[in-house]
Amino acid sequence: MTPPDDATAPVRHPDAPAPGELLGAHYAHCFGCGDAQPHGLMLQARAAEGVAITAEFTVKPEHQGAPGLAHGGVLATALDETLGSLNWLLRVIAVTGRLETDFVRPVPVDTVLHLEAEVTAVAGRKIYSTAVGRIGGPDGEIAVRADGLFIEVKVDHFIDNGRPEEIQAAMSDPDQVRRARAFEVNP
Ligand SMILES: CCCCCCCCCCCCCC(=O)SCCNC(=O)CCNC(=O)[C@H](O)C(C)(C)COP(=O)(O)OP(=O)(O)OC[C@H]1O[C@@H](n2cnc3c(N)ncnc32)[C@H](O)[C@@H]1OP(=O)(O)O
């Protein structure tokens, strides 16, 4: 997870959402951010300065592992989704290759997890990023953290591996921004 010596600093795309702007969902049925997934995380990410974002996710009863506490896999999903959202600021499509997660404190149901994430380096198709999630407010104590390695892919990654019905539906999405995020970001 250490960037190689020839890695460079990430460059914010000139058309990236302005700091403070909500990113919205990249796909309505995404378990992390989609609004058409009733039990999903419905994570809301917002652009920050540089190649960084903030995000919030409220833990619902559907997200429990131990009684009254968030499931670790759900928290990993929140971190994965937050780190994945960063790639929209670079205007690349990328998927998670590796995700290293530390669970520092339990996160109770009804808690708002305040996440912040940034891209730290880019090396060819590899995008290195890091995130923390805090409870008790944006400056609260750290409950989770993760480092991510995302690999840039072409849209063919989804067309070749996904189911045609969902691909077709996403391509016909009337939400222009969401369609662009899914299909038009690669040259
Ligand atoms: C419908 C469309 C919607 C689209 C919306 C946007 C999507 C948003 C989704 C948001 C949802 C949230 C996000 C999600 O949940 S994304 C969903 C979870 N992730 C996946 O499903 C990815 C599955 N994996 C793959 O498809 C392939 O393995 C990929 C594409 C990742 C690489 O296979 P590919 O054949 O292309 O590349 P390569 O093997 O030549 O590797 C290239 C370089 O990368 C390095 N490397 C690779 N893996 C690892 C690793 N594990 N650790 C360390 N390094 C690794 C490798 O050493 C090499 O380095 P170098 O030799 O160059 O130095």
From TrEMBL:
Its membrane topology: Peripheral membrane protein
Cellular component, GO annotation: cytoplasm; membrane
Subcellular location: Cell projection, Ruffle membrane; Cytoplasm; Membrane
Highest taxon, organism lineage: Bacteria
Catalysed transformations (reactions): octanoyl-CoA + H2O = octanoate + CoA + H(+); dodecanoyl-CoA + H2O = dodecanoate + CoA + H(+); (9Z)-octadecenoyl-CoA + H2O = (9Z)-octadecenoate + CoA + H(+); decanoyl-CoA + H2O = decanoate + CoA + H(+)
EC number(s) from the headed UniProt entry: 3.1.2.2
A single MF term (Gene Ontology): hydrolase activity
UniProt-listed InterPro entries: HotDog_dom_sf, THEM4/THEM5_acyl-CoA_thioest, Thioestr_dom
Pfam families from the UniProt entry: 4HBT
UniProt record, GO biological process: fatty acid metabolic process
Thioesterase domain boundaries: 68-127
Keyword field: Apoptosis, Cell membrane, Cell projection, Cytoplasm, Fatty acid metabolism, Hydrolase, Lipid metabolism, Membrane, Transit peptide
Family: Belongs to the THEM4/THEM5 thioesterase family.
Protein name as catalogued: Acyl-coenzyme A thioesterase THEM4
Species: Streptomyces indicus
